[in-house]
Design a protein that fits this description.
This protein has 429 residues and is an alpha/beta fold. The chain is 40% helix and 16% strand. The protein contains 18 helices and 15 strands. The protein binds iron/sulfur cluster (SF4).
């Protein structure tokens, strides 16, 4: 039986293949004659001259915004989607599985509906499925079911009714990645766990819905999987796609990872111990992206971050002292953020200019599934004014400002990506 595994075309830059795509391909390939179509990567790759131009403009700027620097290309390429669609023989596929492209985990319901409608218009008999961990937050399960899109869980792609249990990555086969030339970087993702060890930040959608719950992997299984991936693909770099690498398996993992002599990067909560940071450094970790969120303890308490500004400061200095780039992300416009709170954030940045090269700033948005969205909290009305002030503060200090997640992720990778023969497509073009 023929099946396809496909991703929708989104504004998500194809920096590397998604872990969901890799695991899905390995599982489905055992049962079906499978075509793997990362439509997102494919469309950007077909337009790689334009993509390269977009990326090099981003690299030349001090302040980069997804809305000005990433989205225009996406809107330009959306026009080519219909003709790309016509080139795929949808009628050949009895089953079509849709999943997450690239690095960013969220897919809006409408993006899955759109691709499903286009498939149905070409092949009404194909069964359509979706799997991804943004179900229950960015992706509305009930709406998909209404549209006859069947929901599947990575733990069991062949049967329904698995609900939002943690993904048991240790029980899955080693991911399969194809057409790797279509991605911007030669980077592969891996997971140390399902979920976030904290999971209680009030603004957070990432640890909600199907990504709630917590399940750490055995280090032995992760290392075995990485051995296979490195043997098979020899990627230039690896990225841990946990929302935070904090967990009981981190030091053991870091110690065992040393033998690969591969650079890697990750996201963390800003309360790793100095022993953990030293182990990360020894293992080859190049940067840690983390949610600093605010320099005000009052705001940090109200958003239930579980970490205060003294810990944030210590964390930034420890990473920097150990030679790991600290990559903070923070927002302005928390619902109850006062002028004094905002000034504390400005002060915090001024005090850490020596340690920070790139910062990810964004206006707080209330996102689906987050506690703030359920309690109908609204962003502060001074959000945009404060964002502009903070951008200027950072710019004046020589910190590169990324507004939005797509450009931040690209520029952070670009900063630490190893400079050897296998370069990113931007460098080749
Ligand atoms: S914001 Fe980060 S640390 Fe907080 S709950 Fe979400 S994933 Fe966890």
């Amino acid at each position: 039986m023929k099946a396809a595994l496909i991703t929708p075309f989104l504004s998500h830059l194809p920096l590397h293949p998604s872990a969901y795509l890799g695991y899905g391909a390995a599982i489905l390939g055992k049962k079906f004659e499978l075509d793997i179509i990362d439509l997102n990567a494919h469309i950007y790759f077909k337009n790689r001259d334009k993509l390269s131009e977009t990326l090099s403009i981003m690299e030349s700027k001090k302040v980069i915004m997804d809305s000005f620097d990433v989205l225009p290309l996406y809107y330009e390429l959306v026009g080519s989607l219909e003709s790309e669609f016509k080139q795929i023989s949808w009628k050949n596929y009895e089953k079509i599985f849709i999943t997450t492209p690239s690095w960013f985990v969220t897919i809006l319901t409408k993006d899955i509906s759109n691709i499903s409608k286009q498939i149905k218009a070409e092949s009404k008999n194909s069964e359509i499925f979706f799997f991804g961990n943004s179900l229950g937050s960015w992706t509305d399960e009930k709406e998909l079911i209404k549209q006859h899109i069947q929901i599947r869980h990575l733990n069991d792609l062949f049967n329904p009714n698995h609900g939002n249990q943690p993904v048991d990555y240790d029980a899955l086969p080693t991911p399969l990645y194809v057409n790797r030339e279509k991605y911007v970087f030669d980077i592969l993702p891996f997971k140390l766990k399902h979920g976030c060890v904290w999971g209680k930040c009030r603004f957070c959608s990432l640890a909600k819905g199907w990504n709630s719950g917590y399940l750490e992997r055995s280090v032995k299984c992760v290392i075995q999987e990485l051995e296979e991936l490195i043997d098979r693909y020899n990627p230039n770099m690896l990225v841990c796609r946990d929302n935070s690498i904090n967990g009981g398996n981190l030091i053991e993992f870091s110690t065992q990872f040393e033998k690969f002599k591969k650079p890697w990067v990750a996201m963390a909560r800003a309360n790793l111990t100095i022993q953990e940071i030293k182990a990360l450094k020894k293992s080859g970790c190049r940067f840690i992206y983390f949610g600093m969120e605010s320099g005000s303890d009052q705001v940090l308490r109200k958003i239930n971050k579980g970490i205060d500004s003294i810990q944030m400061s210590r964390f930034i200095r420890d990473l920097h002292d150990q030679g790991i780039m600290p990559a903070p992300s923070l927002f302005v416009g928390a619902p109850d953020e006062t002028e004094e709170d905002f000034n504390k954030t400005v002060r915090f940045i001024l005090d850490h200019g020596e340690q920070i090269d790139i910062i990810n700033l964004y206006p707080l948005m209330i996102t689906p599934g987050a506690e703030f969205s359920l309690t109908q909290k609204k962003p502060n009305r001074n959000t945009l004014t404060r964002l502009n002030i903070l951008i200027k503060v950072c710019k004046d200090m020589g910190i590169r400002v990324c507004v939005g997640t797509q450009n931040a992720e690209y520029l952070l990778f670009k900063r630490v990506y190893p400079d050897n023969d296998q370069k990113s497509i931007t460098a080749q073009d």
